[in-house]
Design a protein that fits this description.
The complex is a heterodimer of chains A (255) and B (259). Chain A is α/β, with parallel strands linked by helices. Chain A is built from eight helices and ten strands. Chain B has one domain: Orthogonal Bundle (MetI-like fold). Helices cover 85% and strands 0% of the residues of chain B. Chain B is flat, with a radius of gyration of 23 Å. Classes of the chains: A alpha/beta (255), B mainly alpha (259).
């Protein structure tokens, strides 16, 4: 029985001029439906490359990605995707930016008015619906981008270091938002990050990627109860997970 | 409110500067004993110019028509080619380098040729205006339509939206600020092109007027012509700036916050 997402011998080599840069792989990964998987590795290890290949937004050099046994050939559209740089456009208000996701998908904006209000409320942005993104702080922008990513209720969510540019407090807040949403709707999440703590706090499984060319060093199942609040983060088990991951990257000389 | 006072204050500085400039000009003529056939005083320019007002207004219309017509044709062509080149890899490898190399040629050098091909009428002037306006518009449009952020590109691809929807909802609005850089640059070129075309060969228009009166040792009238030409140039530029405010208010407001 194949898993929800099945990745086989996936490799990416970038060619620029005569030079070949081996960016990622080969790697094999299986992901269950409803799993929260973090892809953790040092910068430049090809983890974003992996995510884009899973989304069908970047062609692989060899290997394949399958969703429910169907081979991926073109960009997947039943997903929500979020990057470190947000995809809010400056000519639309926050609300209109969330509607952009719906408009591009040909969904009726009118049917989603309640959902838009609710999701904005869930990240405490309901009073900023009619503001432009450049009037908001970085953290608020990223929370708005989160709403934009989630509004069409995607079954698969791909996050590429969405909290990378934020301060520690804002990160903590948005992590809680992610967790809350995941616990309620149980989408399949692939979360690319270089923060060990973030990976352990959020995911049910962490995939450790080696420095470039990125390969899978090991997978660690995080066996901690949700919601993972401050109490869980203070627990010995949580700290043990952090330590063991630290040791792996220490071995590679990245920390 | 504070902003308003600031604006008035900065406005007054400019007015004062102009008043000072013209006063200096007016009184330095007798002071340095500059002959009036070299440089006339502003008061004389106003007096002699108003005697020729009918002609000046009519010629402003002539030059204005050439400028505006050529400018709008250049916008239509420039945007059209710009978009086509941005979306077609074949055109990007053929037309684009061709345009870049022509950009290096001083377009105004073609003016005598156009006059000899198309005569003294409206058409050669419009063509020259199109020529001097087209390149800044097309090159900025290409830049504009090719500089969509990587994240936005990936985002719209992940929605499965078709090319047309993507164009109108993302690519076009994202490109407009850079397009306006080209429009503004071209607006400055437009009156220059029309004037030089008239210098070279015409029987009406402000460029024609200035070259004739200068030949007749009438710098006072030449300055009157230059004044009208300046007004024409400012109007075209003002129109583009107004369109920018109407079409991309979000961009203007962004600039205001950042500065």
């Amino acid at each position: 029985m194949k898993k929800f997402i099945e990745i086989t011998d996936l490799t990416k080599v970038f060619v620029s001029g005569n030079e070949e840069i081996h960016a990622f792989g080969p790697a094999n990964i299986s992901i269950n439906s409803g799993e929260f998987v973090s892809v953790l590795g040092p910068s430049g290890c090809g983890k974003s490359t992996l995510m884009l290949m899973i989304a069908g937004l970047l062609d692989s050099t060899s290997g394949k990605v399958e969703f429910e046994s169907k081979l991926l050939k073109e960009p997947k559209t039943d997903i929500g995707i979020m990057f470190q740089e947000n995809t809010l456009v400056p000519w639309r208000t926050i609300k209109a930016n969330i509607e952009l996701q719906l408009e591009l998908r040909g969904l009726k904006v009118k049917d989603y008015q309640d959902q838009i209000y609710n999701i904005l409320k869930s990240v405490s942005l309901e009073d900023f619906a009619d503001r432009y993104s450049n009037e908001l702080s970085g953290g608020m922008q990223q929370r708005a981008a989160f709403c934009q990513t989630m509004i069409h209720d995607p079954k698969i969510i791909l996050l590429d270091e969405p909290l990378g540019k934020l301060d520690a407090m804002t990160r903590e807040k948005i992590r809680a938002d992610f967790q809350k949403l995941w616990m309620v709707k149980k989408p399949t999440v692939i979360f690319v990050t270089h923060s060990i703590e973030e990976a352990v706090q959020l995911s049910s499984r962490v995939i450790l990627i080696t420095p470039r060319p990125g390969k899978i060093d090991r997978e660690i199942k995080i066996d901690l109860p949700y919601p993972r609040d401050l109490n869980v983060k203070r627990s010995k088990k949580f700290i043990n997970y952090l330590t063991s991951i630290h040791e792996v990257f220490h071995k590679y000389g990245v920390i | 409110m504070q902003k308003f006072f600031k604006w008035v204050a900065s406005g007054w500085m400019l007015v004062l500067f102009f008043v000072g400039f013209f006063l200096f000009w007016e009184y330095s003529i007798p002071f340095f004993e500059i002959p009036r056939y070299i440089l006339p005083a502003p008061s004389e320019i106003v007096a002699k110019g108003s005697a020729d007002l009918d002609k000046l207004i009519y010629y402003t219309g002539v030059t204005g028509l050439e400028t505006v017509l050529g400018y709008f044709i250049a916008i239509v062509l420039g945007l059209g080619f710009g978009i086509a080149i941005s979306f077609s890899s074949i055109l990007r490898r053929t037309l684009y380098p061709f345009f870049v190399s022509i950009e290096m040629t001083p377009k105004i050098a073609f003016a005598p040729l156009f006059i000899s091909w198309f005569g003294f009428g409206l058409m050669p002037k419009v063509i020259i205006v199109v020529l001097v306006c087209f390149f800044p518009i097309v090159l900025n449009a290409i830049l504009a339509f090719n500089s969509l952020s990587n994240e936005l590109t990936l985002f719209y691809k992940s929605t499965g939206a078709n090319t047309l929807i993507t164009f109108f909802k993302i690519r076009l609005p994202a490109a407009l600020p850079q397009c306006f850089v080209g429009f503004k640059y071209a607006a400055i070129n437009a009156t220059v092109g029309a004037t030089i075309a008239e210098f070279i060969g015409s029987d009406q228009g402000l460029g024609f007027y200035i070259s004739i009166v200068t030949g007749n040792m009438r710098p006072d009238l030449a300055f009157a012509g230059i004044f009208f030409l300046t007004c024409l140039g400012l109007s075209v530029f003002g129109f583009v700036t107004m369109m920018e405010k109407i079409l991309i208010p979000w961009h203007i407001s962004m600039k205001r916050i950042n500065t």
